[in-house]
Design goal:
There is one protein chain. This protein is α+β, with helices and mostly antiparallel strands and 293 residues long. It has three domains: 9-71, Uridine Diphospho-n-acetylenolpyruvylglucosamine Reductase, domain 2; 79-200, Uridine Diphospho-n-acetylenolpyruvylglucosamine Reductase, domain 3 (2-Layer Sandwich), CATH 3.30.465.10; 208-281, Alpha-Beta Complex (Uridine Diphospho-n-acetylenolpyruvylglucosamine Reductase, domain 1), CATH 3.90.78. It has seven helices and 19 strands. It has helices at 35-44, 94-103, 119-125, 134-137, 185-202, 222-228, 257-275; strands spanning 6-13, 25-32, 49-52, 58-60, 65-71, 79-82, 85-89, 106-107, 128-129, 132-133, 138-144, 150-154, 172-179, 181-182, 208-212, 235-236, 239-241, 248-251, 284-286. The chain is globular, with a radius of gyration of 19 Å. The structure holds flavin-adenine dinucleotide. Flavin-adenine dinucleotide binds next to strand 3, helix 3, strand 9, strand 13 and strand 15.
């Protein structure tokens, strides 16, 4: 990979790249600057690869990651509008895409204003809120596969489910096209403003958090089960279950990834004992508990 158009760093700590601000180093952190560089990287790389966005749904364990972590940035964050469609690179922030859609009079993407991740993360997680999910508005996604080939997937081929998409774990989303409906930009902005006020009132969005910790079991709310198990405000080391929204974990300052994971597992056990429900993690936990030397 001589003259590769990107940046490669070895043993790069990942904590600054996650909302929780915890986690060990990536053996290799790769930032390709364009699609050709991404393809070249994938074709030339041995061992595991994993794309990350802005780490708003990630708990990177303290021992870090033994493979290549790919972080898309410059070259992958363009947003273009045509008619009622909007195309966004996978590094574009969801909030910017929502705002661009509103400015262009495209309704239906307001929900993205409240998700603090990137378009790549939104596709992977089928992110959603207030009744709309990414898969409800997505037309197609452009994706790089593990061998470096690039494919466009139509919505029906992406296997969207609750906070899930059926792409292989090592696929890298490059960008996505969404469709909305025509509306007055001021009305769309108003709806987004209301959504953000509700969110600010209900969630600890200014803390070091990873969003919802557990998936909602069918017909249940995870936060209600956590509350009923007496776990609101529960702490382990520097990790705490938020008092404001008890399905959000917080790093209160000096938490380790182990503190956060132990807190989550303690809560799972207490919920099992109290209500019989087996909560499943929504936050993606990746990497090794301890550093391999
Ligand atoms: C305060 C707060 C509020 C939140 N509210 C919501 C909410 O209302 N609804 C909701 O759904 N989520 C919510 N989340 C969770 C999170 O924002 C979403 O899951 C978001 O889609 C993650 O995007 P990201 O770019 O941060 O991805 P990351 O956290 O970096 O990664 C998440 C997953 O996506 C994969 N991924 C990321 N980028 C790519 C890519 N380019 N190609 C392939 N895979 C990729 C990663 O491998 C990982 O598996 C919230 C989080 C926080 C901190």
């Amino acid at each position: 990979m001589t003259d590769w158009n990107g940046r490669l760093l070895n043993d790069k700590p990942l904590s600054p790249y996650t909302w929780f601000r915890v986690g060990g180093p990536a053996k290799r952190l790769a930032t390709p600057y364009d699609e050709a560089a991404l393809s070249e990287l994938l074709a030339a790389t041995e061992g595991p690869v994993l794309a990350i966005g802005v780490g708003s749904n990630l708990l990177v364990r303290d021992g870090g990651i033994d493979g290549t972590v790919i972080r898309l940035g410059r070259g992958f964050n363009q947003i273009t509008v045509g008619g009622n469609r909007i195309h966004a690179g996978s590094a574009a922030l969801d909030a910017k895409v929502a705002t661009a859609a509103a400015d262009a009079g495209i309704a239906g993407l307001e929900f993205l204003r409240g998700v603090p991740g990137t378009i790549g993360g939104a596709v992977r997680m089928n992110a959603g809120c207030y009744g709309t999910e990414t898969g409800d508005r997505l037309i197609s996604a452009r994706v790089a596969l593990r061998d470096g080939t690039i494919r466009t997937y139509e919505n029906a081929d992406l296997g969207f489910g609750y906070r899930h998409c059926g792409l292989p774990d090592d696929a890298v989303v490059i960008g996505a096209t969404f469709a909305g409906t025509a509306d007055d930009p001021a009305a769309i902005h108003d709806r987004m403003g209301t959504l953000m006020q509700n969110r600010e009132a209900a969630q600890p969005i200014r803390d070091k958090t990873g969003g919802s910790t557990f998936r909602n079991p069918p017909g249940e709310s995870a936060w209600k089960l956590v509350d009923a198990a007496g776990c609101r405000g529960l702490t382990v080391g520097g990790a705490q279950m938020s008092e404001k929204h008890c399905n959000f974990m917080i790093n209160t300052g000096d938490a380790t990834a182990a503190d956060l994971e132990t807190l989550g597992e303690t809560i799972r056990q207490r919920v099992r004992e109290t209500s019989g429900h087996d909560l499943h993690w929504e936050i993606k936990r990746i990497g090794n508990p301890e550093l391999h030397t």
